[in-house]
Amino acid sequence: MTLSGLPLEGAFYPTRNLGPASSVVVFLHGYGASGDDLIDFSAYFTGNLPDTAFYAPDAPEPCEITPFGFQWFSLEAFDPDLMRRDPRTLPRALEDLAEGAAGAAPLLNDYLSAVMERHGVGPERLAVVGFSQGTMMALEVALRREVPIAALVGFSGALAGASRLGQQLRCRPPVLLIHGDADEMVPYGAMSLANHALAEAGLDVRTHTCRGLGHGIDDQGLFVARDFIFHRFGES
Predict the structure, then answer these.
(1) Which of 15, 33, 35, 93 could pair covalently with 10 via S-S, beta carbons 3.0-4.6 A apart?
(2) 66 pLDDT exceeds 90?
(3) What does the pLDDT read at residue 83?
């Protein structure tokens, strides 16, 4: 189902028992997709998190390369030469993409605050799960909030603007990075780059490699993400 009245439109699943939510998981889709592409993954989580509500907003901009999807920010504007797909030029591309992520961050930040307010929960009961460009946005926003969220999971994504993290970091949520070692869109090495930068900044970072997986999400990664979020909610 969809739910209006928030800064972004998108998909929503209530708690499994249809009662009040004691925690919230927000999925952030990738470039050219929509919230509908991720919301069904909530089925992997509800067995362990029956009192959790799930959200999957649509990014604010129509995608520049497809009429049916959305984008958090333009890739053609900030990386027209596809430097992000080559491990040798990926670090430079991620610095350029940081400007796009920063521009989209305020609206997503407002959305997360509005979702928490809707359910009367604090950041210690919020988890954010990103995929690809959604992972860039999750890292961009969650690391700059006043209070850390319970968990941040990033599938097949990257950290944009690592060089500015030291000056802009405001909190240190626990992070899980999951990546396929056959990713043809975002090089597998992006996970190592993010892991190194986040660990250097003092964050608790875990990584998981999905062997043979391309640019996508598989059952194995979802189960790892589920357990990570379950334990983080259990600690709060």
Answers:
(1) 35
(2) no
(3) 64
